[in-house]
Amino acid sequence: MTTTTHKGLTSSNTAADTASTDAAPVVRAVLYSRISKDTEGLGLGVERQREELHRLAAARGWHVVADLADNDISASSGKRRPAYEQAMALVDRREVDVLAVWAVDRLVRRLRDLEDVIDRTEASGSAAGVRIVTCQGDLDLSSPAGRMQARILASVARNESEQKGLRQRLQQRQAAQSGRPPARRAFGYLPGGRDLNEPEAGAIRECAKRLLAGASLTSLADYLNGEGLTTSLGRPWERTAVRAMLLNARLAGIRTLRGEVVGKGTWPPVLPEEDWHAVRALLLTPGRTTSGGTTARKWVGGTLYRCGRCRAPMRTGTRAGASGNADPTAARIYLCDATGSKHLTRRADEVDAYVLAVVEARLAEPDVAALLPAESPDVAGLRREAADLRERRDGLGEAFADGLLTAAQVKTASDRLSARLAEVEERLAQASQAGGLSYVLAAECPPVAFRSAALGIQRAVIDTLMTVVLLPGRSGSRGFDPETVRLDWKG
């Protein structure tokens, strides 16, 4: 006796089922199930199809060779269906006599896929054909009438798929216009999207503060991973994922649909809208480095310190070995070769240690709060202008709906307002230089916060407080000489 068991259902072939192998040969069947959308991730739709198919197999006395299922995979999206491919491989090798599905649309939803199934199941040479059987009836693909029926069913399935897609798009548009959150959970929110996940929301706020203070995306990814947090998909954080997360308009309570702003959301924002726009402007600043960073940015003063001979930015490098090539084991140096030769070099670790120590000492002074400049009238005016531009742009849709503007007029006005808004946001991003100092001074102990801050924040603080100028060493001097580092304090 051959038996295949599934969830308490058993299909079997015994001697009684087949009185003689000549009169009733064993029929080998592969069962295939599929569901396009498994919103709960429980596979219940596939499970119900499997139960029906096993009942069918038991009633027909088939031997179930394989029970295969594709869960949460559409048949019309073009995505790979691993279980479908396994089933068709069994068909190609003629290891089955029957391919059983709950309905035709579980197998194919496109006519070109049906034609492929017809070609692969029909008899050829000495190879017998493979029958297609559904829980609603058999399909005779060996006859013209049967193939026509299958094509009609596939056409109906295709039409249902297209109608379903249209309904889903309309539902998504309606949901967006009513301010409901998207179905997919966003980092910072609980499932359903209407309530904050406070540990994640707090981490987002910290990331926004650090970014505006000068931290890199890589350092933010390290921070999130260090807090034991993962993305909404359960993956470790990488800089690209951090960037995408911070650019998500849902953090500001803004509802979008396919990248288009639809209106205000009905959920609480993680960030004030003004703060999110500042983050967005900084991340989208033209020319902002999107790679992992350059070698110069791995040291505090790369491109930040100035040459005492020509005032050009100092870059980082290593001392040349005896052969004239860079020695990878040598100490890192700051060098200036603006004139075509290394006319000034200094050991990076010694200079950085001195500069960091001076800044820490200054941050420990009782009047440290006076270091933070008040927001300039220009910045305040830019923020007001940005808010006004967004409001005017958002109001164009209502003017179009009321018949006050044509579609062409709306596009022209929207393009003009968006272009001006991009300029204002870029200027605001450039004006956030004091962000690093603000972040450090807001800490309980500014010197400790500065020492433990990400490299980008340390650079921003130094750049806000002073200009570091490296001078040539004095002849005959040995070791580090503080007199060769001039600190020009700003303000």
Automatic annotation (TrEMBL):
Pfam families: Recombinase, Resolvase. Signal peptide: none annotated. Residues 186-289 form the Recombinase domain. Residues 1-20, 163-192 are annotated as: Disordered. Residues 28-179 form the Resolvase/invertase-type recombinase catalytic domain. The keyword Coiled coil applies. Keywords: Coiled coil. Residues 379-434 form a coiled coil. The keyword Coiled coil applies. Residues 10-20, 168-177 have a biased composition (Low complexity). It comes from the Bacteria. PANTHER family: DNA RECOMBINASE-RELATED (PTHR30461:SF23), DNA-INVERTASE FROM LAMBDOID PROPHAGE (PTHR30461). This is Recombinase family protein. It comes from Geodermatophilus arenarius. The lineage of its organism: Bacteria, Bacillati, Actinomycetota, Actinomycetes, Geodermatophilales.
